Amino acid sequence: MSSDISSDTAxxxxxxxxxxxxxxxxxxxxxxxxxxxxxxxxxxxxFDWLDQRDLDPEYHAVFEPAITGxxxxxxxxxxxxxxxxxxxxxLNGHMDTVQHVDGWKKDPCSGRIEDGKLYGQGxxxxxGGLASLLVAFxxxxxxxxxxxxxxxxxxxxxxxxxxxxxxxxxxxxxxxCDLAVVTEPAPTITQQTIENPAIVLGARGRFLYEVxxxxxxxxxxxxxxxxxxxxxxARLAAAFEGMGLGQHPKLGSGSVCLLSIEGxxxxxxxxxxxxxEIDRHVVPGETAESVLADAEQLVASLDLESDVDVSxxxxxxxxxxxxxxxxxxxxxxxxxxxxxxxxLFDTDPDVGYFSSIGDFNHLGGxxxxxxxxxxxxxxxxxxxxxxxxLDEVVxxxxxxxxxxxxxxx
Length: 409
Fold this sequence. Notes:
Layout: H1 19-30, H2 40-52, E1 58-64, E2 70-79, E3 89-94, E4 113-114, E5 117-119, H3 123-141, E6 149-154, H4 163-170, E7 179-182, E8 198-203, E9 205-214, H5 229-241, E10 247-248, E11 252-253, E12 255-263, E13 273-282, H6 288-302, E14 307-312, E15 325-326, H7 335-345, E16 350-354, H8 359-366, E17 371-373, E18 378-379, E19 387-389, H9 390-408
Parallel strand pairs: 3-6, 3-7, 7-17, 8-16
Antiparallel strand pairs: 1-2, 2-6, 4-5, 5-19, 8-15, 9-13, 9-14, 10-11, 12-13, 18-19
Helix pairs in contact: 1-3, 3-9, 5-6, 7-9
């Protein structure tokens, strides 16, 4: 893509995106460390940025006492439209990053720019996309809109549960939303090889198996006198790798990945306990009940000597899983994104589907909101040397502003 767009687009809103302001904003937020559960400083910056532009931000409390004990705040703002029958569009982006990883040769929060790339932890995932949303929201605020536009800058997307977006759903902020737009790095983690300009219209879901294998201890010189839980756990882990998986014409195949196996370690003792964690990505049609039943059937088929207990990871709320979803490419609320990209960049967008999970699963899966992902690409997501393509940060803002304006003008 090229941000050198024509001024005869739609009504010109894309030309109102200031590249310099966008880059400055992105540098500022990258320079504020914000690993998940530590988003206070970046939330305050975003609140102030919106407040300085008279966009009436509010803090939205997020509290999860049962498992994580986390307390934090999303930042929320709303543009009120004139027509209650016009669509309401949700703009969603997360403020947090993964915990800072070792190995950076330079400051992971430098926000340095080299060869059109901005470097920093979370620059691609997804502070670049968040900056795009903020400047698009500001541009939309200067228009006479028929429909509402809601901005949610959320906490804990990179954490275990997506608590920030979950709170917006539980507290009813998303109840009347007709479309969600999430600016994750669209081409970076997809099932297909795609390039910007691109639109991502679905994602696999995810469950986490927690398996406890209980055997019988014995002296290590007499293994036949005991039941080796670690050995049975290894057999079970290998069997999971070969289990049948769901298939979907858009999302492809599900997947299984052994994440951890722990047990034993006592000198000359047959391990009597072993615990396994297994990741399972799923496609539409697979549910918590079916996924658990698959595992129980697999365990029964092995006829292991050990006792085996299989469960899904505990969640703060019942049913709070990362559910798979697919948004219809021909949905009337989606087509403006195709039209905007064609108008702005004189090309058809690539279409893809996310291979992993994010807050878009809560919105598109649990909340059932048609969800579109558009966002800047980069590399080294969650790793050292993470960067985002600066021109695509600007272009994402232009696409969001133009497409949403088409929907709610």
